[in-house]
Amino acid sequence: MLNIEGKERVLISPLGWGLGHATRLIPIIADLTDRGCSVVIAADLPSNELLRLRFPTLEYIHFPSINIKLSRRRLKIIRLIQIAMRFFLLTYREHKQIKKIVKEYMIDIVISDNRYGLWGATERSVLITHQLRILFPIPFRWAEFMGRWYVKHYAEKFTECWVPDRPLGFRFSGELSSPSKLPSNVEYIGIQSRFTNIGVEKGESEWDFVGIVSGPPPQRDIFEQILISIANRLKLKALIFQGLPLGPRLARTVGNATLVSHLPDEEMAQAIISAKLLICRSGYSTVMDLVALNRSALIIPTPGQSEQEYLAKYLAKHKLFLSIPQSRLLSLTLANYKQLVKVSNA
Description:
Elements: E1 9-14, H1 20-23, H2 26-35, E2 38-43, H3 45-54, E3 59-62, H4 77-105, E4 109-113, E5 124-128, H5 144-155, E6 160-163, E7 186-188, E8 209-212, H6 219-233, E9 238-241, E10 252-254, E11 257-260, H7 265-274, E12 278-281, H8 284-292, E13 298-300, H9 306-317, E14 322-323, H10 326-329, H11 334-344
Parallel strand pairs: 1-2, 1-4, 2-3, 4-5, 5-6, 6-7, 8-9, 8-12, 9-11, 12-13, 13-14
Antiparallel strand pairs: 10-11
């Protein structure tokens, strides 16, 4: 691991594809500030706002990454090619931009979460990723070697590559962090969650289920509407986190569903561990949050997102979580709900 004395100016920069890349940096930022480092956050506006709520005194830079909009159904081939091309262009563009930022803000160390172009501007740089192996959709499985090359090639340009998972034993990221050939600079740094060291205890919940919405549009909006529909169709009282730190502060109700744009970590953790049933996506940052809280859930992969589909199947196989596809969630019955509550709390 990097030798950090505590006097350094450290730039932290998460990818803007969902808020998970920002939330899992919270324990790292907290550790750096505790050591006495001056931390500068360079991110998209939603990520900056989320981290500002936790660390209001830090410096923030608007440093856009990538704005992804998924298909309303599964990812179409043309859309996948467009996303891949944008990532390559993003890497090239950010590699040029980071040099200016480092010079202007006198940065000593750069820590990048899945932004592959942020190397070379300082003597010490870190790439954080759990995807050392990128899983392609079935029509593109033949090209997975290109994804592995891309990750390994750029990971090794950084001083170190940190993987947020266990160094030994069972790994929650499964094959994603265990390719046949690891980058030479890999360090497994353990589970990273915003809920680490938050002291909350399980209590009686007023909610029949709690839903957590995450990921890029329009699938996040579709998922939110499905959760609202379940609450009203089955007459279940639901609390739904929209994952919108820039959204309205006041909760609103849609029938039996109460929607909140964002809550402080302690309040959110309390709602999660006390929920009779938790329904959320199978994104890796969400998985780490649930592991940190020792909480099971019904995890629903985003349709067409290969990483989430793999994680949902892998973690359900090891009986850590329950999982069904989004299409089956639409037809959830009251009997299904009661069985899910029973199993998830067993």
